[in-house]
Amino acid sequence: MIGINLKVQDSVKEAGIIVNEMGRLLYLTPLYQALVGNGYKTEAMAFYKQAEAFYSPLARNAVRSILGIKNDMEEIKPLKKLVRAKY
User: Has residue 80 been placed in a domain?
Assistant: First the structure.
């Protein structure tokens, strides 16, 4: 993350490799925050699109929040009240 903060381009490439191989939220959150916070949002979005299916739903929602993408849970429409059939 220090390299990202110093805007070292090789560090951004390395971060891309890490976020595509490591799905733990503990590691993803600071990396994506560093990328977005230092002007690499386009790269962060590309990394996320490559690894999206690999992440757990919790990790996906956390990264989407950092990237400013609508979360999965916001897209779920409320279920209609179930009505029991009368027999």
Answer: no
CA separation for the pair 57, 72 (Å, rounded): 8
C-beta separation of 1 from 32 below 8 A: no
Query: Does 25 fall in a domain?
Result: yes
Distance in angstroms (rounded) separating the CA atoms of residues 74 and 6? 35
* Cut 0.70: pTM above it: yes
Whether 20 is in a domain gets the answer: yes
pLDDT along the chain (87 residues), means of 10: 77 91 90 93 94 92 92 52 59
